[in-house]
Amino acid sequence: MPASRPARGPETTVKVWDPVVRLFHWTVVTACVLNLFILEEGHYWHRVTGYVVAAVLIVRVVWGFVGTPYARFAQFFPTPSKVFGQIGDMLDGREKRYIGHNPLASVMMLTLMALLAATCLTGWMQTLDAFWGEEWLENVHAILANSIMVLALLHAAAAIFESWRHKENLVWAMVTGRKRA
């Protein structure tokens, strides 16, 4: 008879993503889907959704300095040596397992956060009299939004691929906040 797998409980998992990080992540996912595919550009609910993203982004940036250990930027800031070290480890087949963000995921997360901030800023600027109807600003806003969409799809694909490669459901970890110990 095959041996049964041990139950996955608090003793076999570690808390990684706190509620603030998970709420930020899923709020941004929902807002991007709404604003990119469902809501009409420039209309009331599109703008409200953008302001929600700006608000949760501000909370997340503050939380990156005062939050739980895996939420702090200092824990996962991607220095060039860390990024190239991870790439080298991957190429050599000796990649380390990271409980929090790995260096490449950190680059992606910080890039997406910067793009979100720039998209919120350019969206807000379009509501000002000084920039009302400026086509260049609308184009910059659209390019930023499309860049978020491309990188978010790459991020999701990487999470799925890494889940398969490391035999650990990273998407589910962002739902539950827990990863394998």
Describe this structure in words.
Helix 1 runs antiparallel to helix 2. The chain is elongated. The protein contains seven helices and two strands. It has 181 residues and is mainly alpha-helical. A two-stranded antiparallel ribbon has the order 1-2.
Element-level helix/strand string: EHHHHHHHE
Indicate the low-confidence ranges by residue numbers. Answer: 1-6
Helix content: 55-70%
Report the average pLDDT across residues.
92
CATH domain fold name? Fumarate Reductase Cytochrome B subunit
Q: What's the number of domains?
A: 1
Outline: elongated
Radius of gyration equals 19 Å
Describe the oligomeric state of these chains in a short phrase: single chain
Strand order of the largest sheet: 1-2
Terminal Cα span: 27 Å
**Total strands:** 2
Count of separate DSSP helical elements: 7
Membrane topology: Multi-pass membrane protein
Subcellular location: Cell membrane
GO molecular function: electron transfer activity; heme binding
InterPro entries: Cyt_b561_bac/Ni-Hgenase (IPR011577), Di-haem_cyt_TM (IPR016174), Hydrogenase_cytochrome (IPR051542)
